[in-house]
Specification:
The complex is a heterodimer of chains A (591) and B (306).
Chain A lengths: L6 H14 L12 E5 L11 H19 L3 E5 L1 E2 L3 H14 L4 H4 L1 H15 L1 H10 L9 E2 L3 H16 L3 E11 L4 E3 L4 E16 L15 E6 L10 E4 L13 E3 L6 E6 L11 E4 L5 H10 L26 H14 L3 E14 L7 E10 L2 H12 L4 E3 L3 H10 L4 E2 L1 E2 L9 E4 L2 E7 L3 H12 L9 E3 L3 E2 L2 H4 L2 H4 L8 H6 L2 E7 L3 H16 L4 E7 L20 H4 L19 H6 L12
Parallel strand pairs in A: 1-2, 3-4, 9-11, 15-23, 22-23
Antiparallel strand pairs in A: 5-6, 5-14, 7-8, 7-13, 9-12, 10-11, 14-16, 17-21, 18-19, 18-20
Chain B lengths: L2 H8 L25 H22 L3 H25 L4 H19 L4 H10 L20 H7 L3 H23 L8 E6 L3 H4 L2 H8 L1 E7 L9 E4 L2 E6 L6 H27 L1 H6 L2 H28 L1
Parallel strand pairs in B: 1-2
Antiparallel strand pairs in B: 1-4, 3-4
Helix pairs in contact in B: 2-3, 2-4, 2-7, 3-4, 4-5, 10-12
Classes of the chains: A alpha/beta (591), B alpha+beta (306).
């Protein structure tokens, strides 16, 4: 026997042995199954310490259950990670002086797949180095053929059930290109602008004299007075004592005479302007969210090419937005509503393609109606059918589920599952949702009565689905659904889901909903929530702070005890690592 | 290579030439003449298997690691391996060691998959083409086995107490700087007849020329420690050159007095306390307390050599 243990050689040798001899693989049989699906890491990335902790915990449970004689499956895979992956490839393109639009959709997607083939293997290599006993023969990718088919089927079924619908959402809009822009397609540039201080009279206050129409008013500072006709509230910070007495009152929107409420919302910055802001849900992303929280109307006062429409009022209708700004400022001044004007340096968004000033506006996006899906998912945890470990995380889960909002699932990206909705070229109001273009065409022929239609007469929705729209199906799409496979029948519901608390909402709750809706059974029995790896001083690790560690450098080998897979203790010898509290690196551990 | 692994691999040296040929099946094992230590490690193995399974059922991953660690390191490596070297019933003890070691490797496998696989093969627990990851996870012994071998909780606690006494004597030897090779005289104050039967193994483990027993409650004028086994006393008679030792101690005390004086002055300086980083001040306080503790120990020692 060698006196020295050569970790590198031994680990390479044994992992190869295990994998080649099918030690990670089992087929359905008569035994009790134990199954776990891995939280799929983003295919773009490299594993960090959080992954190492998460996967080590899973591997410990899986190896233990397998040795106990359970028929064990740990299913590996990666996530296509829509925006993250698209960004990486676009950055590479940028070095060649190109934009994705220069390539066109098809060529660009080819580039992304090519990139995945070349670099997507980093993670699965690292996972092998960690010693993960995952069944590589069943490895999946959220954007592979089977998972994509599941996505199309789920979208179609939810649409048919009335649970997927099109609704308004705020997007960045280029009036010249006539298209929505992703956040990263908006270039923010410094601008010398103005703050217009505008008085909104409080309803019920006495009329004043000498050009001061009302004695009692609130003063609002705005950089975009042309959006004023779209205001549906003014807002103050709930902690702002100066204005507490106003909350719940109504004010008169100048020039329109419309009465709008004074609301309080944490979003308002007490230091900004006067501490009172106008809320224009149809024309500002933050105001849109405030509006959603307070149930405010969304009044879209502009056309696609940034002219004012009839909702802006008769006088302004048809004006260009800059022309309208001028007119409104003049009218405010004439009416005694304009208090004063200040110069201000701010940032204004421009279209990265044509440099036009970007407008925030409402746009039709796809949503999932969540309430009907959430109810059975709440019940499954309440009844104890699904358990959180530790139990206290169920409170967070309930809290979110009981206040759930509809989920905006469309994204203005190219890399992802393209929405299976098809529009008639001759009449874009006619939409056909189907798993394939052929089925959509069949629907179109029936509905229009025009048997001569061809695929070329249809336009597929250009948007793709949110990345989580594929990962919420992960526990059953990976086992073959919608086919009725033996794996699905035997390994579903999975036994344990092991993850950290930061994705209870994004992922765990949504998997619960999808699992129950499409499989009629929750996707797992136990939701095991572990701590987040933190730096020695308790702060979160992040690349930008420079205190994060890549898995490979931190645990070159798994020769050190894995429960102490923390940055500090892995550098110590086995003995001291094991005698130190295993929580030393995860002192904020939740379990 | 890491420390713990070296120790684990060193266990192999204990393998008797024919041990590899022996089956590890303890059910065919003759339970006669098992010592308290043999029965103790069997109990510890049983306990570890049950605990680890129970803990993992509750998803307390890190507690499971501690349980395996305690069994592997404290019970086997620190405890039983030492015993087996001089076991009066070596064949039985080696067979037991191999059985509990094999259990420990499998308990450890989910935590340390590669090392356990390598060691299992190097020690001949597995043949080529086999893998530890598909071996049965240990459940512990059956009640019938434990009863046949006399594996009881009482015996387990008794041997733990004995280990505590051994550790206490080792600590006293270190405290009074008794050279490791020197044989010492030990006295144990206890009325337990079972304890007295352990005299031979105590002598070996404590490197003592004699271990004597006096009634519980006796008070002897020697360095001592209280343990569950009884109060243990270490005689320093004839072990050290009293004059040389007294001189060395006096020197050390003088040096420490200097350190203490300067750090007390530093800490009395408000300017230092107010402006130095908190960690620096805390470290100065800790160092001062440590030096005062050293002085107390040395003064105690000085009395013995006066």
């Amino acid at each position: 026997m060698d006196k020295h243990y050569d970790a590198k050689a031994a680990e390479a040798k044994w992992y190869k042995f295990w994998e080649e001899n099918g030690c990670f693989h089992q087929d359905p049989d008569g035994r009790e199954p134990y199954s776990v699906v891995i939280p799929p890491p983003n295919v773009t990335g490299i594993l960090h310490m959080g992954h190492a902790l998460n996967q080590t915990i899973q591997d410990i449970l899986v190896r233990w259950r397998r040795m106990q004689g359970r028929n064990t499956l740990w299913l590996p895979g990666t996530d296509h990670a829509g925006i993250a992956t698209q960004n990486v490839v676009e950055k590479a393109l940028k070095k060649e002086g190109k934009r994705r639009q220069d390539l066109g959709r098809e060529k660009f997607l080819e580039r992304v797949w090519e990139w995945k083939r070349q670099y997507g293997g980093t993670i699965v290599h690292q996972q092998r180095m960690l010693g993960n006993s995952t069944d590589w023969r069943r490895e999946r990718f959220t954007f592979d053929e089977g998972c994509s088919r599941a996505v199309a089927k789920v979208f179609t079924q939810l649409y048919d059930e009335g649970l997927v619908y099109k609704g308004n959402y705020i997007v960045n809009w280029c009036p010249r290109c006539g298209t929505a822009l992703a956040n990263d397609e908006v270039e923010h540039e410094p601008n010398h602008g103005h703050f217009w201080y505008v008085r909104y009279p409080v309803v019920g206050s006495a009329k004043g004299v000498k050009g001061e129409p009302y004695k009692d008013y609130v003063m609002v500072a705005t950089t975009r007075p042309e959006t004023l006709p779209g205001d549906t509230a003014v807002a103050v910070n709930p902690k702002d004592d100066r204005y507490a007495h106003l909350v719940g009152k109504t004010v008169i929107l100048p020039l329109t005479g419309r009465e709008i409420p004074v609301i309080s919302d944490d979003y308002v910055d007490r230091e900004f302007g006067t501490g009172i802001v106008k809320i224009t849900p149809a024309h500002d992303p933050n105001d849109f969210l405030v509006g959603k929280r307070h149930g405010l109307a969304e009044i879209n006062i502009m056309t696609d090419d940034a002219h004012m429409n009839e909702l802006a009022g008769e006088k302004y209708c048809g004006m260009d937005r800059w022309e309208c700004r001028k007119a409104i400022v003049e009218d405010l001044d004439a009416g005694g509503f304009l208090d004063h004007i200040e110069d201000i340096d701010n940032q204004v968004g421009h279209c990265y393609r044509c440099h036009e000033t970007v407008e925030s506006r409402l746009s039709k996006q796809w949503f999932v109606k969540m309430k009907p899906l959430a109810e059975p998912a709440i019940a499954a945890v309440k009844s104890g059918e699904v358990k959180f470990v530790p139990e206290r995380w169920s409170k967070i889960y309930f809290n979110w589920m009981e206040n759930i909002q509809d989920w905006c699932i469309s994204r203005q990206l190219w890399w992802g599952h393209r929405i299976p909705a098809y529009y008639l070229k001759s009449d874009a109001e006619q939409v056909f949702v189907a798993e394939t273009a052929e089925e959509a065409l069949a629907q179109a022929k029936t509905k229009t009565g025009n048997a001569a239609l061809t695929i070329a007469d249809l336009d597929q929705d250009p948007d793709v689905l949110d990345t989580w729209f594929s990962s919420w199906l992960w526990p059953f799409s990976t086992l073959g659904w919608p086919e009725k496979t033996k794996d699905l029948e035997y390994y579903y519901p999975t036994t344990d889901l092991v993850t950290a608390q930061d994705i209870i909402f994004f992922w765990v709750a949504r998997m619960m909903m999808a699992g129950i809706h499409f499989m009629k059974k929750p996707p797992f029995r136990n939701i095991v929530i572990h701590g987040i790896v933190r730096a020695a001083d308790g702060s979160k690790m992040s690349k930008s702070k420079g205190n994060s560690l890549e898995t490979r450098s931190a645990s070159r080998s798994r020769s050190s005890p894995r429960s102490s897979a923390t940055p500090r203790s892995t550098r110590r010898s086995s003995r001291s690592a094991a005698t130190s509290r295993p929580r030393s690196g995860t002192r904020h551990a939740s379990c | 290579m890491q420390e713990a692994e070296v120790e684990k691999l060193n266990v192999e040296k204990l393998k008797s030439p024919d041990a590899a040929a022996q089956p590890f099946n303890l059910s065919t094992f003759q339970p006669f003449n098992l010592s308290a230590d043999d029965r103790h490690i069997l109990y510890a193995a049983d306990l570890a298997c049950r605990k680890v399974n129970e803990i993992l059922e509750a998803y307390r991953i890190q507690d499971g690691a501690l349980a395996v660690y305690d069994f592997f390191w404290t019970q086997i490596c620190d405890g039983y391996v030492e015993y087996v070297k001089d076991s009066p019933n070596k064949a039985a003890s080696v067979a037991i060691l191999r059985d509990v070691f094999w259990k420990a490797l499998r308990l450890l496998h989910p935590y340390m998959p590669f090392v356990t696989e390598e060691v299992a093969h190097q020690l001949g627990f597995l043949k080529d083409g086999e893998t530890i990851m598909l071996q049965e996870f240990p459940k512990g012994y059956t009640d019938a086995e434990k009863s046949a071998w006399g594996v009881t909780e009482g015996n387990y606690e008794f041997v733990n107490a004995k280990r505590e006494a051994i550790t206490a004597i080792r600590a006293l030897r270190a405290e009074y700087k008794v050279p490791p090779a020197t044989f010492v005289k030990v006295t144990v104050a206890t009325d337990d007849a079972k304890a007295k039967a352990e005299v031979e193994s105590l002598k070996k483990a404590m490197r003592a020329e004699s271990v004597e027993f006096v009634p519980a409650g006796s008070d002897l004028a020697m360095p001592s420690k209280i343990t569950k086994f009884g109060t243990v006393y270490l005689s320093l008679e004839g072990l050290v050159d009293k004059a040389a030792e007294a001189k060395r101690i006096a020197g050390e005390l003088a040096k420490l007095a200097g350190f203490i004086k300067s750090s007390e002055a530093k800490l009395a300086n408000e300017n230092f306390v107010a402006h130095a980083p908190e960690a620096v001040v805390a470290e100065a306080r800790r160092k001062l307390a440590e030096n005062k503790e050293k002085v107390a120990q040395l003064e105690k020692l000085a009395k013995l050599f006066a």
